[in-house]
Amino acid sequence: MNHKDFICLKEAIDKKQKILVSSCLLGMKINYEGKAHPVDELQQLFRQGQAIPVCPEVLASLPIPRDPAEIVMVNGERKVYNNKEIDVTEEYRLGAQRTLDTARTSGAKIAIMKSNSPSCGCGKIYDGSFSENLIDGDGITVALLKENGVRVITEEDFLDCIRK
Ligand code: SF4
Predict the structure, then answer these.
(1) Nearest Cα residue to 99 out of 48, 26, 158, 152
(2) Which of 129, 115, 105 has its CA nearest to residue 18?
(3) Phi-psi region of 49 (alpha: psi -120 to 50; beta: other; left: phi over 0)
(4) How many angstroms does the Cα of residue 22 sit away from the middle of ligand 1?
(5) What is the spatial distance between Cα 144 and Cα 55, in angstroms, rounded to a whole number?
(6) How do residues 101-143 score in pLDDT, each as one tens digit?
(7) Is the bond preceding residue 56 a cis peptide, omega within 30 degrees?
(8) Lining residues, ligand 1, CB within 6 Å
(9) Is 117 or 3 the better-scoring residue by pLDDT?
(10) Is the pLDDT of residue 161 over 90?
């Protein structure tokens, strides 16, 4: 997380601004396996009314559970394929657009998104080989949020920030 992200997050917390948060980090059992990744400190933000839950994949009406998917480059374009080699790019783009719409509606200028996911990953994502190798890059939703001026950090960045 860079210094500007740090300042922006601190300010958002102090001023009780709305913050977009990946729903699985708030304890909702909605990931591809039907599991959650709860973070106590984020659940507290939710109870205080500050965290706006978003799950791009649920917003795109993908089922729970669902087949895992990863981002791959095809002819210079970022696409999303699941582990059955089905192209699910359109669903992931729809989820990204609906998440951006939620950011705009709520006024959130910062988002805390689940690391490594093909939708929510920020800075690191899986390499498309379904072998848990990470490469530099953003998930489909995070890339769209950043392109539209929403600052994005991971849950790990958030925990580092509040513990300083
Ligand atoms: S799309 Fe994002 S919010 Fe939804 S389960 Fe995956 S990581 Fe969590």
Answers:
(1) 152
(2) 105
(3) left
(4) 6
(5) 14
(6) 999 999 999 999 999 999 999 999 999 999 999 999 999 999 9
(7) no
(8) 22-24, 30-31, 55-57, 114, 117, 119-120
(9) 117
(10) no
**DSSP H helices in 48-129:** 56-59, 89-106
Strands 124-126 and 51-54, by their bridges, are unpaired
Q: 146 is written with which tokens?
A: 């950043």
Q: 68 C-alpha to center of ligand 1: Å?
A: 11
Pairing, β 51-54 against β 19-22 = parallel
80: tokens are 């999303």
Q: Which residues contact 135 (CB under 8 A, 6 or more apart)?
A: 124, 125, 126, 127
Residue tagged 């996911």 (tokens): 117
Range 80-107 average pLDDT: 98
Q: For residues 12-23, give the mean pLDDT.
A: 96
| Ligand 1: residue whose CA is nearest its atom 5 | 31
> Which residues make Cβ contacts (< 8 Å) with residue 66, sequence separation at least 6?
32, 57, 82
Single out the residue of 105, 106, 95, 10 nearest to residue 59, CA to CA. 95
